Amino acid sequence: MTRQTVRSARLVSVCLLGKKAIRVRQNRIRTEFALAVIRAMQAADWPPIDAIVFPGGYLRAKGFIGHQTHRERCWALANEGFWSGLKDVSKALERHSKGAVLAMGCDSAAPNSVEIGDQCCLALTAGKLVGLARKIFPAPLDTVGDYLPIVPALPDYSSRYRFVGLPNGQQAMLAACYDLFGLSEDRPKPGARSRHIRALWDDGRYFDGHQARRTREQAVSAWRGLLVAQRPRLALCAIHGFKRPGLDGFWQRHGIATASAALKGGLVVGAAHFAANLPKPEASTLASVRVPAWHIEAGLNRQARRLTPVDAFELHHAGLSALVRLFER
């Protein structure tokens, strides 16, 4: 019997100068810029890739989808003003790299006075939606303080739609920002990331306080079961952003590198906005691979374990700028 081999994965990240989109009118220029990125990859004569990831909040949706079924979410997204342009970007990517995944962050406005809007990572292949991950692991400040909290939906902890197949034969997990930290929560005793889930929504009801703690146990248990069933080997993370390069060390050590360790050394690549200036190609890479399992137990002694890109270029188009980097395992 011949042993089946899997080709090394080629993943591309697009880090954008500036901040996340906060208005719907920003979508048009951003989809046009994404199309320019694909054309620039072609001009650079890069080999076919498996996926490209853009930052969290790269697009802004008009409608809130957090309380909908997957089918309803797909319908709602297909009726967003940016959808036609996003399909064009995905089809252009398909012409360059057959079967490649376009992953991109998309946020929405708050639906009410109870919770903040959606934070999602969308995935398209050949113009069709193939994956959707809504945030399920809030950041430390997402559920405390004077701001509206993020309220994850219970069904999203068992959603197979946050996993996508890549052309090289591997399975990748989509992460909406801090969801990447949830990979290390696949433990018998859930840690700090799970404790930040202080409220949940399910089937028309909000749960907080003692009820939320009980529902949280159900959610994290479903999450652990989902990871076991799907067995992802890579991760694509749409990160919202940093003020400047160099302030991403916590994310690199405890998010990116730790996720690689949790994926048995798998390739993890993130993309983010950088408000002040773009990093150098070899700095703030937000990428790791072959991180050993003991990295998870190292705690505060975790190292950055940055992966250096094999190629990179800056793109300046229509008033936007980005650093585009190619990573290969």
Structure description:
The protein is α/β, with parallel strands linked by helices and 329 residues long. Helix content is 24%, strand content 26%. The protein is built from 6 helices and 15 strands. The chain has helices spanning 27-43, 70-78, 83-96, 192-195, 209-230, 249-262; strands at 10-17, 51-53, 59-61, 101-108, 119-125, 128-134, 163-165, 171-176, 199-202, 205-208, 234-242, 268-274, 287-288, 311-317, 320-328. Strands 1, 2, 3, 4, 5, 6, 7, 8, 11, 12, 13, 14 and 15 form a 13-stranded mixed β-sheet that branches. It has a two-stranded antiparallel ribbon with strand order 9-10. A hairpin with a 2-residue loop joins strand 9 and strand 10 (205-208). Helix 1 packs parallel to helix 3 (83-96).
Q: What is the overall pLDDT average?
A: 94
SS-based class: alpha/beta
Percent of residues in helices: 10-25%
The share of residues in extended strands comes to 25-35%
Task: Give the strand tally.
Answer: 15
Topology order in helix (H) and strand (E) letters? EHEEHHEEEEEHEEHEHEEEE
Q: What is the number of helices?
A: 6
Q: Any idea what the radius of gyration is?
A: 18 Å
Largest sheet: 13 strands, mixed
Q: Report, as a whole number of angstroms, the end-to-end distance.
A: 26 Å
Low-confidence stretches: none
- Shape descriptor: globular
